[in-house]
Amino acid sequence: MREKQFVFWLIALLVVVVLNLPVPATLAVRAGLRDNVAPFQNTMSLVIHQVSLLFSRVGRTAEVLREKQELQVELAELRSRLRRLEQFESENQTLRRQLGFAILSPRRLLLCEVVARGDMSGWWQTLRLNKGADDGVTVGMAVIGIDGLIGRTAAVAKRSCDVLLITDPSCKVACKLVRNGAFGIMQGAGVSMGGRVSLEMLASARPCELDYVSTEHTLQPRDVVHTSGLGGVFPEGLPVGRVGAVRLDSSGLYQQASIIPSADLSTLRYAFVVIQ
Amino acid sequence: MLFWILMALMMLVATLTQASLPVWAVLGYARSPVLLGLVLYYALNHKLWVVVPVAFTAGMLQDGLSMVPLGYSALLFCLVAIVAARYRQLVLSEAAVTAAFFGGIASLVVSLALYLLLRKADLISCKGSVATLHILGSGILGLVTVPVVFLSMAGLHRSLDLIEEEGVDVTA
């Protein structure tokens, strides 16, 4: 009985200790946990990806067999091989595009693979990448895709890092309009990982919101928005998105606009961390 | 020994499952509470001194793999486990409806408490409507997920013939 009570009080003490751990110790524990679980997450992510591919292939093959029963086995094999080649070609093109982007970019970029989507608690919109402190990643670095800004690194372990997406309400980005140089602050308003705008029933249908744009500048739908470099987190000139609807804020002193992000956050498989 | 190995393995599987299951906008991006389901399963079927370490570990895993400060979920999971273990005599721990009831309530309460803690620490800045939807979504997912976790765990324990072993070695 005493032994059991000891375990109980030990855990109670542990909870108190953990809640009051100094920041470096917290970071070390967190980093250790992430580094150890990241390989499993990566494996699971790959398995899910492969299984979904397998299902789609099986579905397609069954359809072809139903429609063209007279086809001979050899022809089916050839088609199957052709499909595989097409898949390789598509993958090849994607990788070449990524490689070309990394080479052509004036910045030093670190190519990362997305190993998990979404925060474990569900309160933040995040991605987990397979590169971390060992590769030179630190907290607060900008993360981009081929099409534009994705977010910033929010937590870094040795071999993985978490990216806070620009669509998360906690993520604020200093932006400017390319056409007239007007400045503003963009904040996430919640967009689904499936690429659809979230909470159509309860909240506004704006993926992100650009605030504090001076009324001296005109805002037009489809205006291109880049990072302004102000604030020090995001380097200047990263493409962010395009302007949607424009309106005055409640005080009438500033303009507001909805921003449609350039990067499709739902289909990301690779991302680049901006090292410099 | 097998009991403890299985528990550790299940903890890892639950963590990976929770991280991999999809989230829905209509439920406020709430995550399916698989780890909480595991904690509730042990809380309703085992002695408190087994349950509390499980709850603590599960909470630490959830905190460590998310952006929640370390210890928040661990504390909440421990509290939920203690309350569930205290009132388990009043319910049928094997019944799916018990799992659904405890799952829904616990998930809702944990989500609400976590929201209040995060809000107090100024770590999140979502709108009230989004937070409400998230908390309700957590409750709904708890209703659905926890019975599945209970069924899986009970089936696994039965298939491995661990019921007797638990009774003698672990929970006696």
In words, what does this structure look like?
The complex is a heterodimer of chains A (276) and B (172). Chain A has helices spanning 2-19, 23-67, 73-104, and strands at residues 109-117, 126-129, 142-144, 149-156, 161-165, 172-177, 183-188, 208-214, 224-227, 239-248, 254-261, 270-274. Chain A has 276 residues and is an alpha+beta fold. Chain A has a domain at 172-261: Thrombin, subunit H. In chain A, the strands form 2 sheets. Chain A has a 6-stranded antiparallel β-barrel. In chain A, strands 6-7-8-11-10-9 form a 6-stranded antiparallel beta barrel. In chain A, a hairpin with a 4-residue loop joins strand 3 (142-144) and strand 4. The longest helix of chain A has 45 residues, at 23-67. Chain B is 75% helix and 0% strand. Chain B has 7 helices and no strands. In chain B, helix 2 (34-45) packs across helix 5, helix 2 packs across helix 6 and helix 3 runs antiparallel to helix 4 (72-87). Residues 164-172 of chain B have low confidence and may be disordered. Chain B has one domain. The chains are: A alpha+beta (276), B mainly alpha (172).
